[in-house]
Structures are given as structure tokens and as C-alpha cells.
Write a structure and sequence with these properties.
51% of the residues lie in helices and 0% in strands. By secondary structure, it is an all-alpha fold. It has one domain. Helix 1 crosses helix 3.
Length: 68
């Protein structure tokens, strides 16, 4: 995943918000319009909020949020 430090915090949240807005407004069609940078920003935002990453092919951990 992209290092959250790659983004300025305001830029990261702005990009994430734009991506979420596309999906929220347009549903599945919006998901096809989200850019790679917006996806990376959404993932980085979730990671910064403490969501644990689940590697491909593995079950999610018992605790989905990592304590700060």
C-alpha cells in the first residue's frame, strides 16, 4: 500500500473524499470512475484510522481496528 506519509494530510482527505463521493453519488458506476490516487488515499485514510489490513487469501483478523 502507498505510504500515508506520501500524502499531505489535507490532500489525502480531499482525494479520499472525492473517491467516496463518486461511489456514493453513482454507485457501481462511480466505482469505475475512482482514480488510483483516490483509491490509495482512501486506503491510507482507513489505515490512519486504525483499520487492520487483511492480506489477499487470508481471513480478517479478530480485531479489525488496531488500537492507537
Amino acid at each position: 500500500m502507498t505510504d500515508p506519509a506520501r500524502f499531505d494530510p489535507a490532500e489525502m482527505l480531499s482525494l479520499a473524499s472525492r473517491g467516496v463521493g463518486k461511489v456514493d453519488a453513482l454507485g457501481p458506476r462511480g466505482a469505475t470512475l475512482v482514480t488510483i490516487e483516490e483509491i490509495e488515499a482512501m486506503a491510507a485514510t482507513l489505515a490512519c484510522l486504525g483499520l487492520a489490513a487483511t492480506p489477499p487469501g487470508e481471513d480478517p483478523p479478530e480485531a479489525l481496528f488496531i488500537p492507537a
